[in-house]
Amino acid sequence: KNKGQESSSEEEDDEEPKTSGANRSKNSATDSDSESESESETEGGKAKGVENLIQVENPNRVQKKTKKLSQLNQSLDTAKPELSRREREQLEKQKAYANYQKLHAAGKTDEARADLARLAIIKQQREEAAKRREEEKKQKEMAQQKKTELTQKALGKKS
């Protein structure tokens, strides 16, 4: 047996089975004869080793699937550019974020309410601090006035 005949069981699925160098040099009539012989040998039940026990299928081989014309027309009519899962999730995320920002600006979210409450507290604290500073300033001015009056009295009495 030559290599072309031994590997023909693996090449039955191919359109043109490979032949050894000796078979290539022969004319096309002998090539077709050797192909038919190798096919008949493998179909005859002469399996080597565990070939009959193990079904080998090439996962890289692409098998053409035939479609009917009606299926093709339907697929063309309904072919919308569907988004991938990631793109769909990203769009949903953007919509949700825009909706959240809208609600947040209106003050309807919990976080916005908390922010507004914090701002109100800070505003109140600043107003109180401003009042305290104003009072301290007035007290300092009053103390300064009293001091100057006392110094004027003291100077006025002496002179």
Instruction: Report the total helices.
Output: 7
The ordered H/E elements are: HHHHHHH
Estimated radius of gyration: 48 Å
Roughly what percent helix? 55-70%
Strands, total number:
0
Shape: rod-shaped
| Beta-strand fraction estimate | under 5%
Biased composition (Basic and acidic residues): 79-92, 128-150
Pfam family, one: PP28
InterPro entries: Casein_kinase_sb_PP28, HAP28
Biased composition (Acidic residues): 32-42
Written description of the protein model:
The protein has 159 residues and is mainly alpha-helical. The chain has a domain of 71 residues. Helices cover 69% and strands 0% of the residues. It is built from seven helices and no strands. The longest helix is centred in the C-terminal third of the chain and has 49 residues. It is rod-shaped. The termini are far apart. The N terminus is likely disordered. This is 28 kDa heat- and acid-stable phosphoprotein-like. It comes from Temnothorax curvispinosus.
Topology diagram in text:
Layout: H1 3-6, H2 8-11, H3 21-25, H4 28-43, H5 69-77, H6 85-106, H7 110-158
Biased composition (Acidic residues): 32-42
Organism: Temnothorax curvispinosus
Protein name: 28 kDa heat- and acid-stable phosphoprotein-like
